[in-house]
Design a protein that fits this description.
The chain has 245 residues and is an alpha/beta fold. The chain contains nine helices and four strands.
């Protein structure tokens, strides 16, 4: 249920890494060109082909290793592990390529500067994104509101999953349950609805609606996704709810 959200964040990280790679190569060339102790650097035109190659290697390795598949910026370990993994593999491939192509005019020192600068840039970007995770995701994908239909263990597990992803822009709007044939305005009905859902394992209590309220609820509130997790004997009562969604 979070696949679209993860794809958009993954694409953003990929584009950011591509921009950082270009900036790192430019800065590495600038530093290498001003080193008086090293041998003279060939003109920049000699490096035009290696820039897109290096960029392709870095992004390709990132895609192959799955760092863009599911971005979890709240995990501090990944802010360091992902760039280190990509940097090690991509640097090895880049040096192997320049050695195999016998491109002696390519400064190995420049490539070393580039690899080091890009590694630092990727780590710093991820640390910054970790601090701005909520704002970043709300700008890129907006908040998504989920309503869980059912009071089964599976429904409660889904609710906990949504809660665990609050920092990623997900919000639990509440529950809907298949109620008995009782008027919704009858005394005690609302209390009985809430008693049907054990919310003790959640961080806070959420409103519980009757399934018959679903069409009106969808008209009043922003509900991006309705997730059904009901018992088998309740499936035949869901036809109207499916049509409302």
């Amino acid at each position: 249920m979070f696949s679209r959200h993860n794809r958009m964040i993954g694409v953003f990280y990929m584009l950011a890494d591509a921009a950082l790679a270009l900036a790192s190569f430019w800065l590495a060339h600038l530093i290498r060109a001003h080193l008086r102790a090293a041998r003279p650097l060939y003109p920049a035109v000699y490096y035009l082909w290696i820039v897109p190659v290096a960029l392709g290697i870095w992004i390709g390795v990132g895609v192959a290793t799955g760092i863009y598949r599911e971005v979890r910026e709240e995990e501090l370990r990944r802010a360091f592990a992902d760039p280190l993994k990509v940097g090690f593999i991509a640097t090895t491939l880049l040096f192997a390529l320049t050695f195999a192509s016998k491109a002696e005019y390519i400064s190995r020192l420049l490539l070393g500067f580039y690899a080091a600068l890009d590694l630092v840039a990727m780590v710093l970007f991820r640390l910054l994104a970790r601090r701005l995770a909520g704002a970043l995701r709300s700008v890129l994908t907006g908040y998504r509101h989920f309503l869980v239909v059912g009071n089964t263990p599976e429904a409660l597990e889904i609710a906990r999953t949504v809660e665990a992803n609050e920092t990623r822009g997900h919000e639990l709007a509440g529950f809907a349950v298949v109620q008995a044939d009782t008027a919704l305005d009858a005394p005690g009905t609302r209390f009985r609805l809430e008693a049907q859902v054990d919310q003790s394992g959640l961080r806070r209590s959420y409103p519980v609606y009757a399934l018959g309220e679903l069409p009106g609820l969808l008209g009043r509130r922003v509900i991006d996704e309705v997730i059904f997790a009901v018992a088998k004997d309740e499936l035949d009562k869901l036809e109207d709810a499916f049509l409302a969604c």
